[in-house]
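Raw record, unedited: Dirigent protein
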Amino acid sequence: MAKIFAYATGSFPFLLIVILFSSTLTTAKSDSFSRNLSPKTLGVKREKLSHLQFYFHDIVSGRNPTAVPVAQADSTKRSLSSFGLVTMMDDPLTVKPEISSKLVGRAQGIYASASQSDLSFLMALNFVFSEGKYNGSTLSILGRNSVFSGVREMPVVGGSGLFRFARGYAQAKTHDLDFKTGDAVVEYNVYVFHY
């Protein structure tokens, strides 16, 4: 670069260098895959905080379970915590603890026993809402669920629809657990910032 500048003693070569340099900058800009946007471009308005409360029905027994094991390690059967068990779910979400109460959505995703010492799940799921103004919107949860703790907290890591740019947390509290069947009803309180 210094040699090029040294040879550019006349005005024409200097002008040529400036043109080539600015052309390089323009090319670099046009090859970029990202840009800054004003929130108004996407219709983003004022941020609000919402509280959602519903009941999650994890049904692992009977003829129509909503959660089924899909993978496990050879050692899972010998583990007191079911370490290595992976379960796929499509659990109903209702407004009251009774399964017959109004359906507001579904919890779809996976949970996996991720602790060798206690019953703690890695939860990766979407709350898919089907009722009211949130119909078609989702919230994404990713976190640790220590099943026998009184209240468990998991982060809300995103969302879609009315929950675009969502962030917050979900608190899970077991409402009912049938030790014979493994079926559970869990109360969720979700606090989420969104636009």
